[in-house]
Design goal:
The mean pLDDT is about 95. The chain is globular, with a radius of gyration of 18 Å. The protein has 9 helices and no strands.
Length: about 190
């Protein structure tokens, strides 16, 4: 009996979602194809029916994860009743919730260190997605892309450091300082 129409696309999407979650949490190198497939509820053997290699999956997972993050941040902005809406995005991005929920958080702080050693294909996709995130923040904050780049750099850097330390007080302080500076940057 043949699969229903759209089955292959649904399976592929499950694999990409599983990969994005795994890469956000464990990075690229520490995640195997069998681990990703198990996370999608599938067997390892089916991977190559959907992807040529892991690099192709990494690229697609980056696209998916940035789209997911932009949707989450847009929802945070849409819930804000007052302007500037960018403040609610900064508050969400640099919150303890986002810091602690790596499996569904922004992929930029999770993978930036590894991407520099990835293939040109993956680095190009990551670059495109980074530019898309800068454009999203710049448009929402009504700032130029140079300020948008500084804003994203501040947010990502603050989140990376807050996730890296084992002192909860210092972690919270890093988030707070990042929020304060990011808002000053946007509102100056």
């Amino acid at each position: 009996m043949p699969y229903p129409k759209g089955h292959k696309t649904k399976v592929r999407n499950k694999i990409v979602e599983s990969a994005a979650q795994a890469f956000r949490t464990k990075g690229i190198l520490d995640v195997s194809v069998p681990f990703i497939m198990k996370g999608a509820g599938l067997t390892h053997g089916g991977f190559y029916a959907h992807f040529d290699n892991k690099e192709q999956l990494v690229a697609e997972a980056c696209r998916y994860a940035i789209s997911d993050t932009i949707t989450i941040l847009q929802n945070a902005a849409d819930q804000e009743k007052q302007n500037p809406k960018i403040n609610s995005v900064i508050d969400y991005y640099l919150s303890p919730y986002h810091r602690d929920k790596t499996e569904m958080g922004c992929i930029l702080p999770a993978l930036s260190g590894e991407i520099s050693r990835a293939s040109e294909e993956v680095r190009q996709v990551f670059t495109n997605e980074l530019e898309r995130m800068i454009a999203f923040l710049s448009n929402l904050a009504e700032i130029d892309s140079s300020k948008g780049s500084a804003l994203l750099s501040t947010m990502v850097g603050s989140l990376v450091l807050a996730r890296s330390v084992n002192d909860p007080e210092l972690s919270g302080s890093l988030l707070s300082a990042g929020k304060q500076y990011a808002k000053e940057l946007v509102n100056s």
